[in-house]
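Quick entry between incubations.
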Amino acid sequence: MSPESTADLLATRIRDTVTRYLDAIASGGSADIVALYADDATVEDPAGTEPKTGRDQIAAFYAALDNVRNTTELLTVRVAGNVAAFHFRVVTETGDKTVTIDPIDVMTFDDQARITSMRAIWAPADVSSSG
Amino acid sequence: MSPESTADLLATRIRDTVTRYLDAIASGGSADIVALYADDATVEDPAGTEPKTGRDQIAAFYAALDNVRNTTELLTVRVAGNVAAFHFRVVTETGDKTVTIDPIDVMTFDDQARITSMRAIWAPADVSSSG
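Done. Structure below.
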């Protein structure tokens, strides 16, 4: 394949990984989320905090999602090279409260479109709560 | 100051740098843009291409803006730690054509809120042209 069509194919696969990531957050299956990561990936959520490194730490981080109900919506996604940046919304029902957060996540990917790094860009002011 | 208020102050200054960056793109002053960068900064636009490194290369990159009319609009910005990600729109009038692009840029900053790295996340499909 030409370099250009290889790049297009990777971009398509990266978009698919982003979609599956948001689907997995919605379905609350942390194992499904972790499966999208490369073995030695890093997760920094929010950016500026100590990164989680490797599958075990990343699995422990996402395990918090296993008992909550979420809906997710992809608002904007951009892909260039092996990088994706996407603005999305997560709405979480926690018993009597509804919590909404809409970060911009920045991810890098390997050539099989597995996530090699994730940085979530958000601050407490980007979280709203009702109910 | 407490670590928290120091972080809040940096976030405020980072948002100000992002605003001034878009203002400088609109006014078409590449010197104003370059002044927002740290000395040894890198610019990768779009992500996946060879980075421009240092003031001279960065100035040469933005010099293309010196003779065009742009309007810019900040659509969404998120800041965490020393990172900002922002979705914005640039509309360029080039004689008989209007070109619109709306990337997500990811920037890191030093402790004086000067840009230390920029990666622009966009693809040709994110550019539209009319006129």
